[in-house]
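Table S2 (continued). Query chain:
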Amino acid sequence: MNATQLFFGLIGLFLALFGIALAKPYMTKKPTNIHTFKQTLTKLLPSHDLLVKDGTPSRIIISLDGIQKAIIIMDRPRADYVMGGLPIFTTNKLGKLTAIAHKIKSLDRTIH
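Corresponding output:
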C-alpha cells in the first residue's frame, strides 16, 4: 500500500463515520418523557386524577375521588413496592404502563 491508497482509505473511513453519525438520530428511539406517560395513563385510567411532579426522578401521583391510589416513578425499572400503604411502580417504558394501569384499577382498598 502506498500513501495515496492510505489517504483515500482514511477519507473513506471518515465519510463512513460521518454518515453513521448523521443517520443515528433517525434510527434511535426518542426518549419518553413524563408528559407522554401522563397522556398514555389518561387514556388508560380516564376516571382517575393524575398529578405530574417534574424533578429527579419525575413521578405521577394517581388519585381517585381525592384519595391517592398509586405513584408511578419514571426511572429504571425496579420491583413494585408499597410505602405507607401506597403502591409505587417504577418504569421508564410506555409498554409497561398498561400492566400498571390494570394493577391500579384492581386496587379495591381505600387508602387514608
